[in-house]
């Protein structure tokens, strides 16, 4: 049996820590950079490796540049060229989210939910169908919420300290909008079985909580138009997301998502997708089936390529953000269908200039220039 290629251990100095990396002695600098990407969150094109005062060239082998077992190599990161929430430093955790909710910093008041409910005239909820409970430092949803039952259409309990969404949520069968942004909800204290009963739900926001995963039950919310799950700790999306045929907006930035299910291509109504600041290295080819897609944000991921049919089949696409990825403008221009896409977005930009709406006057190419490699 042939012996395996000899390996060496290189000591990478980065952001106040030392990272031992085992690599084949015959490996190139480019290969070492790819190994460092998941360990540091710094994209290969944002890495400059220096050993004994000399910059290591991508095409050169480590052995040819006198990098041997035990060598110390310094990693210098270019600003902005990272995946996820940013470079992993000595004082950060790869599993932590970058945004800390305000209520995690301040201490919640000890006021009881019943008292707060009284202050904001809970009796009106049943009449108006709207319960506005945002910014009240609630630790749980008031009992009067369940009393409203099918009369309630909108429940906004954002920016509180709520830890649990109980099964009793199923009583709100007429709910169209449920906003739970910026609370302390985790996987074990949210009743997805209860949420699945909300068949009229159009808008669900669970951003800025402590969720690690989404269950298959999500696919039963077939009326959803908007799903906002940004700033959690999610590492994937369930296959059942493809059942959300009416979903138009998916906001899932600032998580730890590494892969996407191909079933996302079945979300045929999607017009806007934001997956910025995750750990994606590729998008499924099924993205080419999103014929209504207009806006796609993929900033700060490890993407090296796009689905081959994205520009050819997504004929509504006019906004694309690939800044801070491995895809530069030069690479972008080589994707089939780019010319038609470029013409569409420039026409939109010109209309904004003509009507002075939503434009600074500077046209965004959609990706970084190659000169940001250094």
Automatic annotation (TrEMBL):
- Annotated keywords: Leucine-rich repeat, Repeat
SUPFAM superfamilies linked to this entry = L domain-like, Ubiquitin-like
Spell out the residue ranges making up region: Disordered: 84-107
Q: What is this protein called?
A: Ubiquitin-like domain-containing protein
UniProt family annotation: Belongs to the SHOC2 family.
Q: Which organism is it from?
A: Urochloa decumbens
Functional description taken from the UniProt entry? Leucine-rich repeat protein that likely mediates protein interactions, possibly in the context of signal transduction.
Enumerate composition-biased segments (Low complexity): 89-106
Task: Tell me where in this chain the Ubiquitin-like domain is found.
Answer: 8-79
| Keyword check for Iron | no
């Amino acid at each position: 049996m042939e012996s395996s290629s000899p390996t060496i251990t290189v000591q990478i100095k980065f952001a106040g820590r030392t990272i031992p990396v085992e690599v084949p002695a015959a490996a190139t600098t480019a290969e070492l950079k790819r190994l460092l990407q998941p360990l540091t969150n710094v994209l290969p094109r944002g890495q400059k490796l220096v050993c004994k005062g000399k910059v290591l060239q991508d095409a050169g082998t480590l052995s040819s540049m006198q990098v041997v077992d035990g060598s110390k190599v310094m990693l210098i990161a270019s600003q902005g060229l990272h995946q996820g929430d940013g470079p992993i430093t000595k004082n950060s955790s790869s599993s932590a989210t970058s945004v800390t909710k305000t209520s995690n910093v301040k201490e919640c008041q000890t006021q009881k939910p019943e008292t707060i409910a009284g202050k904001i005239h809970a009796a009106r909820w049943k009449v108006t169908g709207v319960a506005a409970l945002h910014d009240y430092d609630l630790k749980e949803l008031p009992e009067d919420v369940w009393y409203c039952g099918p009369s309630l259409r909108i429940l906004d309990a954002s920016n509180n300290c709520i830890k649990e969404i109980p099964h009793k949520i199923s009583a709100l069968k007429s709910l169209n909008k449920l906003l739970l942004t910026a609370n302390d909800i985790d996987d074990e204290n949210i009743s997805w079985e209860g949420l699945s009963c909300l068949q009229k739900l159009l808008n669900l926001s669970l951003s800025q909580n402590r969720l690690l995963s989404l269950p298959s039950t999500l696919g039963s919310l077939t009326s959803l138009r908007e799903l906002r799950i940004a700033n959690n700790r999610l590492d994937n999306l369930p296959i059942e997301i493809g059942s959300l045929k009416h979903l138009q907006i998916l906001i899932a930035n600032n998580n730890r998502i590494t892969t996407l299910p191909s079933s996302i291509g079945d979300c045929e109504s999607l017009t806007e997708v934001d997956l910025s600041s995750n750990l994606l290295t590729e998008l499924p080819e099924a993205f080419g089936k999103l014929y209504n897609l207009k806006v796609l944000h993929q900033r700060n991921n490890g993407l090296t390529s796009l689905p081959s049919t994205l520009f050819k089949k997504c004929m509504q696409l006019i906004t694309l953000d690939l800044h801070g990825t491995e895809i530069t403008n030069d690479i972008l221009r080589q994707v089939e269908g780019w010319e038609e896409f470029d013409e569409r977005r420039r026409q939109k930009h010109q209309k904004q200039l003509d009507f002075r709406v939503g434009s600074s006057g500077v046209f965004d190419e959609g990706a970084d220039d190659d000169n940001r490699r250094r």
